Amino acid sequence: xxxxxxxxxxxxxxxxxxxxxxxxxxxxxxxxxxxxxxxxxxxxxxxxxxxxxxxxxxxxxxxxxxxxxxxxxxxxxxxxxxxxxxxxxxxxxxxxxxxxxxxxxxxxxxxxxxxxxxxxxxxxxxxxxxxxxxxx
Length: 136
Prior knowledge:
The protein is α+β, with helices and mostly antiparallel strands and 136 residues long. The chain has 3 helices and 6 strands, in the order αββαββββα. It has one domain (30-127): Dna Ligase, domain 1 (2-Layer Sandwich).
């Protein structure tokens, strides 16, 4: 009886560990997946669709790396016309059209919350390509 209880406890702990690993592994961005960055900004009379310079792509990948993905309904507005994509468009991250430091992961349909400083850094990078915020 005692042995069965210990075995059951070990199975519960192992199952809990697998669930935690799955939860944290699936709900985070892994920058190794993100290659060949591209920016897209279509707003009013501007149409920008061009590759990211490697240092800028690396900086954005570093901002997104290991960020947790959240299901939420922020009041920020998102559209793929204001976005950064990687891996030949396989991964699309829509940038909040106002000044919220939030990014929408279109592939997972979840949100990434950046710090204010990280949001400013992202906008600074995108401004060099002609992005203008807010663009609502």
